[in-house]
Amino acid sequence: MSLSRADLRDKRLDRRLVKIAEQLAKSPASPINEACGNWASTQAAYRLFNNPKASAAGILKPHWEATPGRMAGCGGPVLVMQDTVFFSYGSHLKTRGLG
Asked: 16, 22, 68, 21: which is closest to 44 by C-alpha?
C-alpha cells in the first residue's frame, strides 16, 4: 500500500492515516462513522481530516510516486480517463429560487 510510505511529519498521523484508509477501503460505500466501526475511530478520522499536517498533497504524494512503477508493470499502453463533465442546474425551472 503506497499510503504506508506517507510522511505527514508525525508518525502517529502516518499510522492513523493507514488505519483509517484500511477501514474506509473495507467498506467504501459506507459513511465514515459506519466504516470506522465505533465512535473513537470516527473521531480519530475526523481529527485526521481536520489536521493541517494531513494535507491532500501529503496524503497523495506516495501514490503519485508509486504510479510510474505500477504503470511500467503493465507492459503496454496505459489509458488515463478523465471526466470533465460539469452539470449546472441553476437555470432549470424546478431549481429556481432554491438556496
From this structure: 16
